[in-house]
Write a structure and sequence with these properties.
153 residues; alpha+beta; six-stranded antiparallel beta sheet
């Protein structure tokens, strides 16, 4: 029982509240401009073709190209996918089209990647995870409560 308790305490002390999360794409299509066109076409009832073109514009929205150099700014802690292999790195700088970085745990080692090698859809930033922090907090409070109960009993 006591060995299990020590193991659980060690595991919780090694758990981090920070996780690598892929930033969600923001759709920058100006939907507000398209809706007035539809409403004026409906009000006039003279341009049903405008409705079809506006609807076609919504269907043909293409994703905005991601600028990797903006996503991977200096001193950011990120997880990238390069040619099928995952790296946790801290970005140092950009040299023309090459990313110069070092691994998270090894500042002496230098890694270089060309921007075409990096999978832009799988760039994950290191962020604070509130649900994990809440789970750790509740578990710690429960462990403290059980400890006090066992001491008093």
């Amino acid at each position: 029982m006591q060995k299990n308790l020590y193991l659980i305490i060690i595991l919780f002390s090694l758990t981090s509240c920070y996780t690598y999360q892929v930033k969600k794409q923001v759709n920058t299509t100006p939907d507000n401009k398209q809706e007035p066109k539809k409403s004026t076409a409906l009000a006039n009832n003279t341009a049903p073709q405008m409705q079809n073109t506006a609807g076609a514009q919504n269907l043909n929205v293409q994703p905005v190209p991601i600028n990797i150099q903006e996503k991977l700014a200096p001193n950011k802690n990120v997880k990238i996918d390069v040619d099928g292999k995952s790296y946790k790195i801290i970005v140092d700088r950009w040299e023309n089209d090459s990313l110069v970085a070092h691994p998270v745990r090894n500042a002496k080692k230098t890694l270089k990647f060309h921007k075409n090698q990096i999978n832009s859809e799988k760039i994950a930033e290191k962020r604070f995870s509130q649900p994990i922090a809440d789970i750790i907090t509740v578990t710690a409070y429960a462990a403290i409560g059980v400890g006090i109960y066992l001491l008093v009993r």
